[in-house]
Amino acid sequence: MEGTSGGFRKELVGKLLQLHFKDDKTKVSGDALRLTADLLKIFVVAAIRSVRQAQAEDLALVDVDQLEKVLPQLLLDF
Amino acid sequence: MEEDEAAEEQQRFSYQQRLKAAVHYTVGCLCEEVASDREIRFSKQTIAAISELTFRQCENFARDLEMFARHAKRSTINMEDVKLLARRSNSLLKYITEKSEELAQFNSEQRAKKRKKLEEENQEPVEPAEAAAAEQDNPSL
């Protein structure tokens, strides 16, 4: 099962989603929470990787400029 | 009363801040993992920016999920709703579908184990709660 490397905890994901629900009655199943945690992890890793790739030069430090370049495509995919 | 509203607003704000901090921590961990693999570092601003981005993306996810569930006349969001979220990119959809199948597989294995354990303890067949999910034949039925 997932959980070996870093990732989002189920409880955190639940709270993050709950923050934005319009209806009080809306709930999330445990499996859906785990799946959303996976999705979030991919989102973050995608951001990290595309920033890395956007480095034209061999920079040792990845800065916000690179993130700005890849943001549009990243958001389109999601 | 205005004071109550202000206090509530303050509470909500600091709750949000705590959640953001938790997200920031997780994003930081993931950055560390990638950074250690390739001998690069991520600036604090980059980590903060990715984490803010993730926090905001959760709002989109939450709204969409709620709407998908409501569209299906449910109040509980399930895995199908989450899969819909991942529809925009083929590779993403494929990955999430695989993950959901793994989860479903894991669940049915857990259920089978529990059922078996109960049967052994009671020494009589247990009525399957969801007939559709039952993989084993029940000769007594």
How do the helices and strands line up, and which of them pair or pack?
The complex is a heterodimer of chains A (78) and B (141).
Chain A: H1 10-18, E1 27-28, H2 30-53, E2 61-62, H3 64-77
Helix pairs in contact in A: 1-2, 2-3
Chain B: H1 2-38, E1 41-42, H2 44-71, E2 76-77, H3 79-85, H4 90-122
Helix pairs in contact in B: 1-2, 2-3, 3-4
Describe it:
The complex is a heterodimer of chains A (78) and B (141). Chain A has 78 residues and is mainly alpha-helical. Chain A contains 3 helices and 2 strands, in the order αβαβα. Chain B starts with a helix and ends in a 19-residue tail after the last helix. In chain B, helix 1 (2-38) crosses helix 2 (44-71) and helix 3 runs antiparallel to helix 4. Chain B is extended, with a radius of gyration of 23 Å. Chain B has 4 helices and 2 strands; from the N terminus they run αβαβαα. Chain B has helices spanning 2-38, 44-71, 79-85, 90-122, and strands at 41-42, 76-77. The interface between A and B is large, with 52 and 58 residues.
So what's the oligomer here? heterodimer
Helix content class of chain B? over 70%
Number of extended strands of chain B: 2
Main sheet attributes: strand count, strand direction, barrel closure of chain A: none
Low confidence ranges of chain B:
131-135
Query: What is the overall number of helices of chain B?
Result: 4
Mean model confidence by pLDDT of chain A? 82
Largest beta sheet of chain B, briefly?
Answer: none
The rough form of chain A would be described as elongated
